[in-house]
Amino acid sequence: MEKTKCLIIGSGPAGYTAAIYTSRANLNPVLYEGLQVGGQLTTTTEVENFPGYPHGITGMQLMNDLKQQAMRFGADIRFGMVTKVNFSQRPFIVTVDDDKQIQAETVIIATGATAKYLGLPSEEKFRGMGVSACATCDGFFYRKKDVAVVGGGDTACEEAVYLAGLARKVYMIVRRNVLRATTIMQQRVMNTPNIEILWEHQTKEITGNENGVTGAVLLYKNGEEKKIEIDGFFLAIGHQPNTGIFKPAVETDEQDYIVTKGKTTKTNIDGVFAAGDVQDPHYRQGITAAGSGCMAAIDAEKFLAGS
User: Fewer Cβ close by (within 10 Å): the C or N end of the chain?
Assistant: First the structure.
């Protein structure tokens, strides 16, 4: 059975950064990229808020740069999906693609989180062309334009208020007749003049052309259709952390995010660390994921050194 000092599960900013740091620490890490090589950022066309790229960079190129940097220092990066873990004893035993098994002295979980979508064919068609699940990432491109936000919770309200500072008009598409958000977030929405709430509406279809989104067709509760003209369509109905195979061994919160100890990346299992969106329900940014990947690598290095 193959053995490694450090196994990194998942790619993206957290996984690749952890690979850079553990490689430079001579831990000879093995990283399995998972099904979505490079993580969520590969679905983003232009990234303008990652430090070091004054003119912006595509999400795909950014992730490839991080990957190449990790490989330069000797990281063993492989395509494959971890399908089973045994954290009951050390070395840990990790199964890849239901077949290959690896013994690992430490494991860094960097499997990220997946944004929830409505499941519309048109939503998939225009993903990255006006359809986004991250206002902080993509809102800059919709200055002085009209956009819509789907959702009625805190995240939706936060995104709507943020976008209102950039866009000309923000529609909030809310399925119910009330917001689920906290009182203070509701008040912020109500006090923002360029936000219009479309109560008891659901999205039937997103319309557009070869240049991207141009509008949306909504359904009122009585079945009546309403059409709105928009340039951007933002999903804010939540994220699902990719933690399924790690439970119940690894402690998670009520939203299934991995719980880490204090200001570290340590989990409830000695030698298992978590980095990036898989343990971050608050920020969910590429740069914070990269930072926590660095932290996880240093935590793993210190653990192996016995300090």
Answer: C
